[in-house]
Amino acid sequence: MDDSWEARIAGDDVEPSTGELGDAHGSGRPHADHRPSRAGNLQRRAQNYPIAGDEARLPSPDETKWTMTEITVRVLDESEWSVYRDVRLRALAESPGSFTATLAEEADRNEQFWRDRLTRSYRLLAERGPVSQGIVSVGAYEQEPSAAEVFGLYVVPEARGSGVSWRLVEAAAALATQQGYRQLYYWVGTDNGRAVGFANNFGFRITDYRRPSRASDLEPSQEIAMMLSLEPDATLAPNPTSGKPATREGPLS
């Protein structure tokens, strides 16, 4: 089963937004209150990881590490299939309602299955030291060539409340920017207030796009696409500190 359908947040560690969630019938473009500095920060981060020509390539581990308050986020390569498998199976066991697949479907999959997963999309792993804290995936968004999609977000229970989700999505957005994408989509359940609040806090805005939910143990429901612009706001005045590393902190609880 294609795991790109997985968009409901699992183990979200950010409180719901207390502000407006945006216009549910809007165009999907960022609202006037969208924080333009986020795109600029992501653009500056992405510039640290250049790619050659127009061809997307899998960055090396040394090129794709984002560290903040002892949490490191990196892209897994194919040789680390067992690391991805272990976190993935834990996610399916602990948060079955957040994924389209089930533990029974994937527990006995062979090595090639997991290797294929790692070559199909980017898998970003958050770690504190040698201990896995969470994972998120980034892949091309089929409906829009200029856009990427973030999905399969999961944080282990003991790391929730420490900002891991925020750091994972921040790294995913920086990677998408590096690969030349201009928008990042995130599908969430319309009944999942925490996921909507998390995405809104990060800067995603609600679009018109809807689709049936594919989560494995839920009653029939809908998912909504939220979109983050990865393009810097050209109307902003130059930032004299733009050459400094981005250190934006997200909510911790």
Written account of the structure:
Helix content is 25%, strand content 23%. Strands 1-2-3-4-5-6-8-7 form an eight-stranded mixed sheet, with helices on both faces. Strand 3 and strand 4 form a beta hairpin. Helix 1 crosses helix 5. The protein is globular, with a radius of gyration of 17 Å.
Features:
single chain; alpha+beta; 8-stranded mixed sheet; 8 strands
Question: What's a quick, concise take on this entry?
Answer:
The protein has helices at about 35-45, 80-95, 105, 110-120, 165-180, 195-200; strands at about 65-70, 70-75, 120-130, 130-140, 145-155, 185-190, 205-210, 220-230.
The main sheet comes to: 8 strands, mixed
> How many strands appear in the DSSP assignment?
8
Radius of gyration: 17 Å
Query: What is the number of helical segments per DSSP (H or I, 4+ residues)?
Result: 6
CATH topology: Aminopeptidase
Oligomer: single chain
